[in-house]
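Why this split exists: single-chain examples teach little about how molecules sit against one another. For that reason, every record in the complexes split bundles all components of an assembly together and asks for one structure covering all of them. Below is a record exactly as it appears in the raw files.
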Amino acid sequence: SQKIEQNSEALNIQEGKTATLTCNYTNYSPAYLQWYRQDPGRGPVFLLLIRENEKEKRKERLKVTFDTTLKQSLFHITASQPADSATYLCALRDMDTGRRALTFGSGTRLQVQP
Amino acid sequence: DARVTQTPRHKVTEMGQEVTMRCQPILGHNTVFWYRQTMMQGLELLAYFRNRAPLDDSGMPKDRFSAEMPDATLATLKIQPSEPRDSAVYFCASGLVLGLDAYEQYFGPGTRLTVT
């Protein structure tokens, strides 16, 4: 069966450290993978997109890697700040089904302690 | 600052009642999505439209849910009759899809539905 797995346990880190979140998928052939941020009571907000032929993408303090062999994406926040505390969702578009819609993981909650 | 709007933001209703949720996508976006989010299931796709035509509603319980786009500025999601298990946050999102190119989705603030 198809699965997108993100660590359901909250990730707690100290301010200034690098946060690393994991997204693993099974039985998908993603054309691309996206990361979203969701704050309590709000809708998800798009952060980064990485295509299947890209290994790494950066945007300011954010970095995403995509390993189609391991079927995994890693999302890094460097020099983390308390304002980075939120739930982070990965999402992918599956090429095999031709479905244009994204399928989302359940998200990992990040808590950055001052 | 273009954004997706949703109404109502909160809805409490009794089992058996009809619920209608509305969404105004970002002007110029050609694809609209409806999602439902619960603690147990996460974010689930219910239906989506391209250029107002329904492309996929396989995630929706068809006997009670219906989704429409009467025009390019309005998408609706109806539940009739509503049940307690429909309690969730319902998000609308829109995006601009060009051919097979990738795109990002812009989410609205959601409608928090409670069915008692």
